[in-house]
Design goal:
single chain, alpha/beta, 11 helices, 11 strands, 38% helix, binds D-malate
């Protein structure tokens, strides 16, 4: 199995993604929010690249059946129901609803993944489940797309790619990595017990803390609390029932 880790959404060009399994990672906070909403019972998460498209998608659905969520530069979008805090996506607020989500980097990374054969979503919250899913179901080409932050590399996303790889090599002995994959694996292996320490001075982590989102950051650093694997079907993420354990 060949795994290439890509550092930013912008670098996920079609020829690096097409025909592969894409694993999209935006730990702070889009992919943590998506898995939380799914775990808490939403019908599906519809990722949308831009704000206007999100609003028009909401008009196509029954108002009581959908929830508009998202942010730009960390701040909730005017007129939306929720921002991009996973803590907002409680069972009470999402159950039996579609979540339409647009975020600065995360939904952009998903957009760049669309030529992949299959797309899934990873975060620290569900990393082990994603590794098991890849280990059992895919044996060829995998690309991990780290969303990054506004075009720049983000350490938390690469660490999370390292986590999925670390879990995967416990299951399979045929994993071949690109250089960023090797760096991610080693970085995670050396820091898995102290994610906060290594991340606390990084750009997006610090920005979220300065905006008052300390609880979100702490929440997103939890590992393997959700045994679910989102899969992209008909333009939305749903839980893959077969691979959730
Ligand atoms: C993004 O997609 O850029 C992030 O999830 C930003 C955020 O922390 O809300």
């Amino acid at each position: 199995m060949r795994i290439d880790v890509i550092a930013t959404a912008d670098e996920a060009e079609e020829q690096k993604v097409k025909g592969k399994l894409a694993v999209v990672i935006d730990v702070l906070r889009a992919t943590s929010t998506i898995v939380t909403a799914l775990y808490n019972g939403c019908k599906g998460v519809i990722p949308v690249y831009d704000i206007e498209r999100a609003r028009s998608k909401a008009c196509e659905l029954e108002p009581l059946q959908c929830l508009l969520g998202g942010e730009r530069k960390g701040i909730m979008i005017e007129g939306f129901h929720h921002g991009n805090s996973p803590l907002e996506y409680t069972a009470e607020s999402v159950r039996n609803k579609y979540v339409i989500l647009t975020t600065t980097n995360g939904t952009k990374a998903i957009h760049h993944a669309k030529t992949a054969t299959d797309i899934t979503i990873a975060s620290f919250l569900n990393g082990q489940a994603v590794a098991k899913y890849i280990g059992r179901h895919f044996c060829d080409q995998v690309v991990m797309i780290c969303a990054g932050t506004e075009g720049n590399f983000s350490l938390e996303d690469v660490l999370c790619a390292g986590k999925v790889i670390d879990e995967l090599i416990n299951i399979r002995n045929d994993v071949y990595l690109n250089d960023l994959g090797i760096a991610a694996k080693d970085l995670y292996a050396n820091n898995k017990e102290q994610l906060h320490n290594i991340l606390s001075h990084t750009f997006h982590y610090s920005r979220l803390v300065s905006l008052g989102f300390d609880e979100d950051v702490a929440f997103c650093m939890q590992q393997d609390i959700y045994p679910i694997v989102p899969v992209y079907v008909d333009e939305q993420f749903i839980i893959n029932e077969k691979s959730s354990c």
